[in-house]
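#random but structural
TW: two for the price of one
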Amino acid sequence: MQNNQEIKPSGSFSLNKEERLCSQKVIEKLFAEGESFLTFPVKVVYLKTELNTHFPAQAAFSVSKKSFKRAVRRNRIKRLMREAYRLNKHEFYQQLGDRQLAVFFIYVGKEMTNYAAIEGAFKKALKRLVKQLRDQAIDKAS
């Protein structure tokens, strides 16, 4: 019988507590000073900042109560968003390098959607986020 450590790939596919954005101060700073963009149905708000963790990013997820009255539906969408992030964060982390980010993902769609649509939006959003960070780094270097 093999040990669990041997079965897992080199990076863990879990979403640890340290990877979740919980600090109220950081969240307030994120919305006050952060930048945002939209990859429908997900709006991404991000801010380069120092985090008290060894992970390159901390993420939070939100769904509007105005759009989805029932908590069951809001929770389902948040679960799908967390899953899409969890499975696609490894490439994102590799491209971030030594930078640290606070990222907030907000579902802005008005209707329930399937996992494939959310995962597609997350892949696009993470690629665009890395591209914008690279562009900002190039602009600062110039």
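TW: number two ↓
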Amino acid sequence: MGALDHLSNIFDCSTGSSKKLKKRKQFQTVEIKIKIDCEGCERRVRKAVEGMKGVTQVEVEPKQNKLTVIGYVDPSKVLARVRHRTGKKAEFWPYVRYDVVAHPYAPGVYDWKAPPGYVRSADDPQVSQLARASSTEVRYTTAFSDDNPTACVIM
């Protein structure tokens, strides 16, 4: 906002004194998981969000069933619009790259429905606790490891 815009907002008498300023939305990336079967579904999903105010870029990845919206948007409004316009079940992207997680094959983290290279995000403390191995487990697994030749003479 420039100085003239600021002064005109201060001295504006046309709307009354109870004028509320709108909060600006942040520039962000919204990732949504939605089932995309064919090119028609891809086109429908793309058109559902391209017309939204504040959207600068839309990427649809049909192989991963992923929609990425970039711009000055509210994530909950994008999700609601996709659900309403397409009639499909949609949710926020629940996956992270598997190399980000310490133990990607732990019971609460691994998801066979996830796209290749992704696992479910583990923000739950019980799931992340299951993913950590105890010190005795680590000791036994490294004792018979081929990477540690001095650990066990029997092998």
